[in-house]
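Hi team,

Filling in the usual template for the complex we talked about on Friday. All components are listed, including any nucleic acid strands or ligand strings, so the model treats them as one assembly.

SUBMITTER: L.P.
PURPOSE: interface mapping
COMPONENTS: two
RESIDUES: 227
SEQUENCES:
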Amino acid sequence: GAVVSQHPSRVICKSGTSVKIECRSLDFQATTMFWYRQFPKQSLMLMATSNEGSKATYEQGVEKDKFLINHASLTLSTLTVTSAHPEDSSFYICSAQAGSNQPQHFGDGTRLSIL
Amino acid sequence: QKEVEQDPGPLSVPEGAIVSLNCTYSNSAFQYFMWYRQYSRKGPELLMYTYSSGNKEDGRFTAQVDKSSKYISLFIRDSQPSDSATYLCAMSISGGYQKVTFGTGTKLQVIP
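RESULT (copied from the run log):
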C-alpha cells in the first residue's frame, strides 16, 4: 500500500520551456502533498506544501511564480517549472500523506535537465 | 549547527554484518522519527516510523529512539548487498501536516 507515482521520471528540455511534473497517490487519498528538490549528496529540501483545494504554502526562498503548484484532487498534485533555466536542473521529488499522524510516502522523483 | 546531523559515510560492510546508522538532533520538540532508504535515482522509501522514545522492530530492521540523548539509530541485521543505498533519518515535531526535517543521509555499501 501507500504507492505514490511521479511522472515523468526524466525530462530534458531547452531553456525557456515550461515543464509539468505530476504526482499521484495511487491507493490512498492524500489531503496533503509535498514537493522537494534534492541536489547531489544533499538532503531533501522542501519547496512547498500543497493542500487539496487550496493554495500551496511555499518555503522561504522558493519563487511561487516560478514553481506553480496545483492540487486539484485528493490524488493528484502538479508542479510546473515555468520558463526553466539551467539552474533549475535538479531532482524533484513529491510525497503524499494519507492523513494526520501518518508518514510521508515518496514518488520516485523527476530528474530535470535544462540545456 | 544543523537541526539534524547524520554522518554521510560512505559506510562499507561485508555481507551478513550488523549495520548501525545514527542521527543526532538538537530540537527536543521532535516526537516523530522516521528512517527512509533511497536507492540511486529513486525517491525515498519509508522503512520505519516511530513515535517518541523506544524500540521498534520490523524484520531485519530495528529503530531506536533515545529522546534524552537526542539520538536515533537504525540497525540492520544480516545485511545484504540489496541493502546498499542511502539511508535518511527524518523527524517532525508532530504528526499531521508538519514539516519534516531530514538528515543528509548515510551511504551504505554491503560488499558480497
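MY TAKE: The radius of gyration of chain B is 13 Å. The mean pLDDT of chain B is 92.

Thanks, L.
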